[in-house]
Automatic annotation (TrEMBL):
Record's keyword annotation contains Hydrolase: yes
Assigned keywords, A-Z: Hydrolase
Database matches in InterPro entries: N-FG_amidohydro, UCP029730
Pfam family, one: FGase
SUPFAM superfamilies in UniProt: Zn-dependent exopeptidases (SSF53187)
Protein name (database record): N-formylglutamate amidohydrolase
Composition bias, Polar residues: 94-110
Keyword flag Protease: no
Start and end residues of each stretch annotated as Disordered: 92-113
GO molecular function, one term: hydrolase activity
Gene3D superfamilies: Zn-dependent exopeptidases (3.40.630.40)
Length: 256
């Protein structure tokens, strides 16, 4: 039996570019759909509302940003509890048995066959469509923009940042954006906060951008700021204004 049924949606939605744009927007944790076969995964209704199932608010920010920038947007529709699309295949937290201290019953002792079935059905098709988008642009300058959101509190620690820029192979683009964000003195901007981007615990930026030495930004916005429509629009507008400036400055400063 196939992992996804005829009633399950495709694992990604691609919103085509509305004009020529160097930005390739991707949203690994936009969705929280579960394949019919997995039911509710044994996770309570309240927990499905939490950040463990998806990146709260980022799907909507992505949609507004797509409209404002006219850039292509590729988003994952299934919950990261089914499979985390920002983890490499086989990574220990790719199919999390525990997420932020919450047990995920459907992910206890997942067999090798089941893991591969989830990868084939969800992880690979999503990354294949990103790969095709990048490949068809060969020869022109583009930048991968990976959109995420983070919870305002973790293990009792209140996170002060409004936005964080995560980087590894391309610190220059991140630094340019951090400096521009800091022009607004009211913003607390994280530099590789609240996470450090790396090739072990991240997948999308290392796999698609680092190995091509392609410019990339991984943007994390604090979830309470984009939990509602007003904040989602406000942050999409902020990014839509900044990204072209960042890109112009990045090109001015030269190649990676
Ligand atoms: Zn995320």
């Amino acid at each position: 039996m196939a992992f996804l049924s005829d009633r399950d949606p495709l694992p990604y939605i691609k919103r085509d570019a509305l004009k020529d744009s160097p930005f390739i927007l991707v949203s690994d944790h936009a969705g929280r759909i579960v394949p019919e076969k997995l039911g509710d995964m044994g996770v309570s209704r309240d927990d499905w509302e939490r950040h463990i199932s998806h990146d709260i608010g980022i799907k909507e920010v992505g949609h507004y940003l797509h409209k404002l920038c006219g850039s292509v947007l590729i988003e994952q529709v299934y919950s990261r509890l089914v499979i985390d699309c920002n983890r490499s295949p086989g990574h220990p937290t790719s199919i999390a048995s525990v997420s932020d201290n919450t047990n995920i019953p459907a992910n206890q002792s997942v067999s090798e066959d089941e893991r591969r079935a989830r990868e084939r059905a969800i992880l690979h098709p999503y990354h294949d469509v990103i790969e095709r988008e990048i490949d068809q642009r060969k020869g022109s300058d583009n930048i991968l923009i990976s959109l995420h959101s983070f919870t305002s509190e973790m293990n009792g620690f209140k996170r002060p940042w409004h936005i964080g820029l995560l980087h590894d192979h391309d610190p220059l683009t991140a630094q340019i954006m951090i400096d521009m964000l800091k022009e607004d003195k009211t913003l607390c901007v994280g530099d590789n906060e609240p996470y450090i981007l790396n090739s072990v615990n991240d997948y999308t930026v290392p796999y698609h951008a680092a190995r091509r030495q392609m410019p990339a930004l991984e943007i994390e916005i604090r979830q309470d700021l984009i939990a509602h429509e007003t904040g989602q629009k406000e942050w999409a507008e902020r990014l839509a204004n900044l990204l072209p400036r960042v890109w112009d400055e990045r090109k001015r400063r030269g190649n990676l």
